[in-house]
Amino acid sequence: MAPVMEQPAVRANGVGSKGLQAILSSPGVRGRKVTSLGATNKATNQPLLDLIQSIAMKQEQKDPFYVLDMGVVLGLWEKWNESLPMVKPFYAVKCNPEPALLSGLAALGANFDCASRAEIEAVLALGVSADRIVYANPCKSESHIRYAAGVGVNLTTYDSKEEVEKLRKLHPRCGLLLRIKGPDDGEARCPLGPKYGALPEEVVPLLQAAHAACLPVVGVSFHVGSGATQSRAYSAAIAFARSVFDTAERLGLPRMRVLNIGGGFTFGPQFAEASATIRAALKTHFPAESGVTFISEPGRFFAETAFTLATNIIGKRVRGELREYWINDGIYGSMNCLLYDHATITAQPLACWSNRVNPTCAGMGQYTSTVFGPTCDALDTVLSGVRLPELYVNDWVVFPNMGAYTAAAGSSFNGFNTAAIPTHVAYSLPPP
Ligand SMILES: *Cc1c(COP(=O)(O)O)cnc(C)c1O
Description:
Blueprint (H helix, E strand, L loop, with lengths): L17 H7 L9 E6 L8 H11 L6 E5 H14 L3 E6 L6 H10 L2 E4 L2 H8 L8 E3 L6 H10 L3 E4 L2 H10 L4 E5 L23 H10 L4 E5 L10 H19 L7 E3 L8 H17 L7 E4 L3 H4 L3 E13 L2 E6 L9 H4 L7 E3 L16 E6 L8 E8 L7 E4 L23 E7 L3
Parallel strand pairs: 1-17, 2-17, 3-4, 3-10, 4-5, 6-7, 7-8, 8-9, 9-10, 12-14
Antiparallel strand pairs: 2-11, 11-12, 11-16, 13-16, 14-15
Helix pairs in contact: 1-4, 3-4, 7-8, 9-10
Bound molecules: pyridoxal-5'-phosphate.
The site of pyridoxal-5'-phosphate has 16 residues, from helix 11.
């Protein structure tokens, strides 16, 4: 018998897979240079570091840049569909609006959560139809509502009577999801409950207000907070949502049919736990016979691990044993995540200027080091008390997992323009 050859095409996310082909031929990717990386080595972060080194060495300016790994995005998409196949993701654009990411996700079949006119425009520009967008901002300005009505984005969230009034006036054909405040914020890194979501006693008046305005409340939505760490937040919110469905029925309103479980997901063991909890809670409160459609708004889950940031060392100072470095991105740029997203970040040295033989500095001695951002504010400190090998001006520092709430919220303070940081698109293959 002839030996059975390994067929790349049959591996779920291999090079010949439909998913990867769809990403590469999608409108936001196909015009761009895409580098094939081969199989990932999780331990060494190769071959991604090789690509970063080759981009770094070619670049006269030594400006910071991102690498977006579409292989990671594809892996996350498959992970989501294995774990929560019954829940359709609407990627939360605010987390990272890089067009190649939006385009790749759209090609895989994701829909989108937009919170403003510009986000809706960015998604429509990729050829995504308006019925694949939820306008998931409970408090919208009138001009943005008018725009949404004009382009046919017909699903939005609300948690106030004032919002009902604006929608009645400006977008009377819009379907509504009542945003509720979950009973538990799951010890989220960024709780959203203080700002959004109806309280239990507000549910009846808000359902009645929409009904009186002839706006259909088609379902319920919640967000347990970004970077939720406790999966019980989902089960508590799903149980509350069930009670809202029951309340609507008791009031004789048209049958609700959509449950939006929001975002808050982080890739890793937390995701396994959250998805198991959600599957169980949906089964209990919304069994298949209920005919309810489940949607979600993951942002961080699809963006965080897909982006790696490369920064250049532009300055250095030695004070005794302490090594201090200045890099060309910081707190007012991509690392705003340290302030706003309460993130922890890790630095990988890439001494491709000073040590071409061993650029990752494997096995070399380390010094207690501080890493500063480029602006003249002392708050602009990226890391302190970290152990790094001896690095030099023109070497690079690489930050993995920098896709969530990084570039999206950076400023151009002091003339360091975060929006100008380019993204190189690549795809790795899963480890063999
Ligand atoms: C920010 C936000 C999201 C995305 O949250 P993640 O924690 O990144 O998954 C989803 N929905 C709404 C309404 C949001 O405000």
